[in-house]
Amino acid sequence: EDKVVQSPLSLVVHEGDTVTLNCSYEVTNFRSLLWYKQEKKAPTFLFMLTSSGIEKKSGRLSSILDKKELFSILNITATQTGDSAVYLCAVDPLQGAQKLVFGQGTRLTINP
Amino acid sequence: GAGVSQSPSNKVTEKGKDVELRCDPISGHTALYWYRQRLGQGLEFLIYFQGNSAPDKSGLPSDRFSAERTGESVSTLTIQRTQQEDSAVYLCASSPSGFTDTQYFGPGTRLTVL
């Protein structure tokens, strides 16, 4: 069974800190790994990763994929209170349609 | 432009009643997905529509769940004889053509079954 595991499940830090969120996966086939930010209900897209070792960056957020070790990390530097959200990792297991398999999410809280 | 919209935003129903949840995808998006998110959990895939092809229903948890989509427009997810375990947020997403495209999510419908 395809599985995505995120850690930690919950993280509380102070504004300005740097955080690293982890995502490991076990899938029969792999097409891509995606990161989403979920603040209230609608997840919003952050990154799609398909190749190992190539960092994707957007402002203070960056992510990298290791297809050999089957994991990805999401880094957020100089955190702000607006970064508080649940961060979801999902894998596209290459089953025709993009039927994403999601992890449980990491709830990140940034305190001022 | 308009994003994915869903209605209602919240629905409270009694056990045993039927409910219908609606999703309006982004105009021009041919692929539409339904997911379920239970409290504190990740999203679970339910069903996928691509254009006029037969839907992929492999994620539907039971025969009480069904969904329809007319062409490339609105979709309705129906849950018959609701049970308390159906309580969750139901999220809809659309993408331009499925497969490798980014999915854009709606705000979801929070369903509470009493």
Tell me about this structure.
The complex is a heterodimer of chains A (112) and B (114). Chain A is globular and about 45 Å long. Chain A has a single domain (3-111), classed as Sandwich (Immunoglobulin-like). Chain A has no helices and eleven strands. In chain A, the strands form two sheets. In chain A, strands 2, 4, 5, 9, 10 and 11 form a six-stranded mixed beta sheet that branches. A five-stranded antiparallel beta sheet of chain A has the order 1-3-8-7-6, with no helix packed on it. The N and C termini of chain A lie far apart (41 Å). The mean pLDDT of chain A is 93. Chain A has 112 residues and is mainly beta. Helix content of chain A is 0%, strand content 56%. With 114 residues, chain B is mostly beta strands. Chain B has a single domain, classed as Immunoglobulins (Immunoglobulin-like). Chain B has strands at residues 5-7, 10-13, 19-24, 31-37, 43-50, 65-69, 75-79, 88-95, 104-105, 109-113. In chain B, the strands form two sheets. In chain B, strands 2, 4, 5, 8, 9 and 10 form a six-stranded mixed beta sheet that branches. Chain B is globular, with a radius of gyration of 13 Å. The model of chain B has no long low-confidence stretch (mean pLDDT 92).
Rounded to an integer in angstroms, the radius of gyration calculated over CA atoms of chain A is 14 Å
Low-pLDDT parts of chain A are: none
For the record, the CATH class of chain A is Mainly Beta
Instruction: Please write the string of helix (H) and strand (E) elements of chain B.
Output: EEEEEEEEEE
Biggest sheet details of chain A: 6 strands, mixed
Largest sheet of chain B: 6 strands, mixed
What top-tier CATH class of chain B fits best? Mainly Beta
Query: For the terminal residues of chain A, how far apart are their CA atoms?
Result: 41 Å
Tell me what portion of residues of chain B adopts beta-strand conformation: over 45%
Structural class of chain A: mainly beta
Helix percent of chain A reads under 10%
Please, how many domains of chain A? 1
Strand content of chain A: over 45%
